What we know:
Elements: H1 4-9, H2 15-24, E1 39-41, E2 48-50, E3 52-56, H3 73-76, E4 82-86, H4 87-95, H5 102-119, H6 131-140, E5 146-151, H7 155-161, E6 169-176, E7 180-185, E8 192-195, E9 199-204, E10 209-214
Amino acid sequence: MESESTRAMRDDFPDDVKRSLANRAALICSNPDCGASTAGPQEDPSKALNIGVAAHITAASAGGPRYDPNLTPDQRRSTPNGVWLCQNCAKLVDNDEVYYPSDVLRAWKTLREHCARLAIGQTRQPAMESEIARRGREISKHVGQRVMLVKMPNSHQATTLGSRPWNGNSVTLVECTEFYVKVRGDGWDRARTIPLENIKIGHDERLNCIELLEYD
Ligand SMILES: [Zn+2]
């Protein structure tokens, strides 16, 4: 338990400095090897969780880690003397001040704030989803359902028989990964695996289900 007298000698950060440090780091731990998010929702829909710490770069009181006697109390509890860390990293840096000198913490802070500045106002990069991945995502919504499997004629067959598709088979869609689909028809002794790249998606009006158009 800290006594009133030692507490009085600690140059703790006021709340507005803590808030500023948290926001300047975009609520992310400044240790570049960590990068933990330090805030999020609680079960209680009105509350937020915070596991972030406004850590002192040089200690708040004499004898603490990286204590700098040349700073005034005001400098010690001002924003430039703080770095936003998660609880784990805050413990880490205070337990080993030789390995984590103030220069290292300042570098972490500079880096984190630089990244936070670059990220401001940036919209999410549209994920580059391949056509095949998109197809897989679409088909996987129908796993477990009956679908029509329609074998499409290859170019040779198309010239001799016309491009009219073969009759469809009603099959069960057993599995869909990012690479293949597995289907099984009535009376088949095993499921068939078809590479996604050989499949196009259609819709069977009559049965109101998706069609897997299989190309060679
Ligand atoms: Zn951390």
